């Protein structure tokens, strides 16, 4: 396991982080085994959020007795001081700890949300107060708009930033990672498999591992998945492999979707998933989870072409800050069904 100093925090963190978002979907004993095996194997970065159902409670139940062995990161999705303070206090309770190593302002994707979180009575002030009280060590920011995140971190108010980085979403490399490096911040990459679309896992994990990040968070739910992820990082990435991975990321990222979720579909098509998986599907095919997504979305995808209000001017495309051809890609996805 590779370890690096996490920005200017002084903490040494493992290159692979345990993403606990999906633990609420498995039996408690399976979650317990996965978390403890991860710690046994040297993973020392645990990532969760107040919004991840009872994920924080699972962490408290399963590994709080090993609290000194891991760097604990959680998140508040609240934007105002009072609600954020209450959520952080609940998080401490649920995880059976008196200190959160990293508290992140969660899922900030619009200028309005950022302003609300940063104003005098905003969530950021609550995080600062918890830091003064000794219940939070560092403050971070997460979101899906890398170019906006790059601007928001430039004033030096955050210790860490969390962002997408995978073979189908390499966009953080342009502005965000260089700015975070200039600010000497902790750099945490998430969704190396893009929610279960990118295969093979070994290649997917090695792409963010090859880039200038400290930790790659992978959502793991079993001992076998922990083993698979650790194995993918066992060898360092050489120059030839790095060039191969970067060329592949250029190809798979051609959809240009950042998963900012500004778009919404009146018939319920999950547009970002289709946009991001479109290139992956053509090149590698889909993992079982990705195939399951397409089967669940089948009726909606097939209905897109006939939805009258969108025929001349698709509603989703009017909301997209990147002006992407969403309806065209969704209609092409209909070919997936034969």
Automatic annotation (TrEMBL):
It is an enzyme of class 1 (oxidoreductase). It comes from the Bacteria. Its EC number is 1.1.1.-. Keywords: Coiled coil, Oxidoreductase. Residues 78-105 form a coiled coil. It holds the Pfam family Aldo_ket_red. CDD domains: AKR_unchar. One of its GO terms (molecular function) is oxidoreductase activity. The keyword Chloroplast does not apply. Transmembrane segments: none annotated. Residues 16-199 form the NADP-dependent oxidoreductase domain. This is Aldo/keto reductase.
